[in-house]
Design brief:
Layout (H helix, E strand, L loop, with lengths): L10 H28 L6 H18 L1 H11 L7 H7 L11 H12 L3 H4 L2 E2 L5 E2 L3 E8 L2 E8 L3 H19 L8 H14 L2 H14 L6 E2 L12 E5 L4 E2 H7 L3 H22 L1 E3 L7 E3 L5 E3 L5 E3 L2 H9 L3 H4 L2 H10 L9 H18 L7 E3 L3 H16 L1 H5 L9 H18 L2 E3 L9
Parallel strand pairs: 5-10
Antiparallel strand pairs: 1-3, 2-3, 3-4, 4-6, 7-9, 8-11, 9-10, 12-13
Helix pairs in contact: 1-2, 2-3, 2-4, 3-4, 7-8, 11-18
């Protein structure tokens, strides 16, 4: 794969890259409608494929927060066209890596030495490259090590990238009102945290220690003396990415076991630690030769404050969902309903969230849940399609819901999809045995 000697970091340079991408997408639409005149039965598959290709090509050279957006979108399997999911999922594993000279320059700047001086051996070629950093293999202390190196300029470009995305997001989600910035500030703060490898090191050490009791769960050992704000060194663990394992696994009990570990890991974090690994995509989990789940990335950790946690999980209780008075109270507590809503907005969003929560909280409403259930995921996909085509929704003020919804909902959506990939059947209560 071709390597990169530099990454665009300036606002103008990055904007021009996005403009070029926009022209390509516009050309694809012109070509599509031209062919549609000749062949009225033509569907949008080829258009989606071409657009996904051009958008991904534009984002992968920008890296950083722009590519992180593609990574997040690839998790949204039930709403996005499959062509986008297939292409954007490459951002989890396969993007152009930095060149060897740029890697050496990064080491010299942040650890004061070149990698060949720090390690017994160091592979100049990246083993894989993703949105914010790339991973190299090294040896030291008689062990194989994974060395994560952050791309230059990522942190500095986050604000400019979000400034470019903001106008489109406001139109897409129909966000109105003076306090809409809370959502963008939440995203910006989490992305900035992900660029601080000193923070990631601390989070990795803390969570790996706190979650030790969970069965069949592994964490790499970390090496603070070989880490800095832009470089993170950890134990190399051989294994397959979760999605690769799930694609060929025929052992249902093994899938159930891994899924149970994944579920217990997430529920223990949320309900006991009140913080959670909020980036549950397949690239952040490995399956080792003994079918253990290996968690390898703790850059995105979301704190769950009590004022959000309590009403959020009360809405997973059917006794609350089906009690109009209690349900209404929780919607206000979570800022889903607003004091300035019109009567029409109150009626509309109350029904919308009743339907949404009645479906999405089903795994919490029984002691066991089968995440291979095609009907459940089909209903989620159908609901997503209905939202996308709802003309009434586009007229409503989309600025609603606590800022904490952004990463907590992303966490659950990603978790559900990973469990669906594994076709896992889980006991939804077993995590409680780890809480003493």
């Amino acid at each position: 794969m071709k390597t990169l000697d530099r990454i665009p970091t300036g606002k103008i340079e990055r904007a021009s890259q996005l403009v070029k991408t926009g022209f390509k997408v516009g050309g694809n639409y012109v070509a599509y409608y031209g062919e549609k005149l000749v062949n009225p039965s033509l569907n949008r598959d080829k258009l989606n494929e071409n657009n996904a290709e051009d958008i991904y090509d534009g984002l992968k050279n920008l890296k950083g927060s722009a590519l992180k957006v593609a990574q997040m979108l690839s998790m949204d399997k039930s709403i996005m066209p499959q062509q986008y999911v297939d292409k954007f999922s490459l951002s989890q594993f396969s993007v152009p890596p930095l060149s060897a000279p740029l890697v050496r320059k990064t080491f010299k700047k942040y650890l004061g030495q070149y990698p060949e001086s720090l390690y017994d051996s160091f592979s100049p070629d990246a083993m894989n490259a993703a949105s914010i950093g790339q991973v190299h293999k090294a040896t030291k202390y008689g062990k194989n090590l994974a060395v994560k190196i952050q791309y230059p300029g990522v942190a500095e470009s986050i604000s400019s990238a979000l400034a470019l995305v903001k106008p489109f997001a406001i139109r897409m989600f129909n966000i109105k009102g003076k306090d809409s910035d809370k959502y963008f500030k939440e995203v910006e703060s989490k992305l900035l945290e992900e660029t601080d490898y000193n923070l990631e090191l601390k989070q990795s050490l803390d969570i790996s220690q706190l979650c030790q009791p969970i069965v069949n769960l592994r964490f790499p050992k970390y090496y603070p003396q070989l880490s800095s704000e832009k470089i993170l060194t950890m134990e190399w663990i051989d294994g397959e990415h979760l999605s690769e394992f799930a694609s060929h696994n025929k052992d249902r009990e093994k899938g159930d076991s891994i899924g149970q570990t994944l579920w217990d890991f997430y529920m223990y974090q949320i309900h006991h630690l009140k913080q959670v690994h909020a980036d549950p995509h397949p690239g952040n989990f490995l399956i080792d030769k003994d079918a253990n789940l290996v968690a390898i990335d703790f850059g995105c950790i979301k704190q769950v404050p009590d004022e959000f946690y309590v009403p959020y999980f009360e809405l997973a209780d059917l006794k609350v969902i089906n009690n109009p008075k209690l349900f209404n109270e929780k919607l206000y507590e979570l800022e889903i309903l607003r004091s300035d809503d019109s009567k029409a907005e109150i009626i509309y969003f109350t029904k919308l969230f009743y339907d949404l929560l009645s479906l999405f909280t089903k795994p919490f409403q029984s002691d066991y849940f089968d995440f291979s259930d095609k009907e459940f995921f089909g209903q989620i996909a159908e609901m997503g399609e209905n939202f996308a085509s709802d003309t009434q929704l586009r007229k409503m003020n989309g600025n609603r819901g606590s800022k904490h919804f952004l990463y907590i909902n992303r966490t659950f959506f990603g978790l559900y999809n990973l469990l669906h990939d594994l076709k896992a059947r889980v006991d939804t209560k077993t995590f409680e045995k780890y809480i003493i």
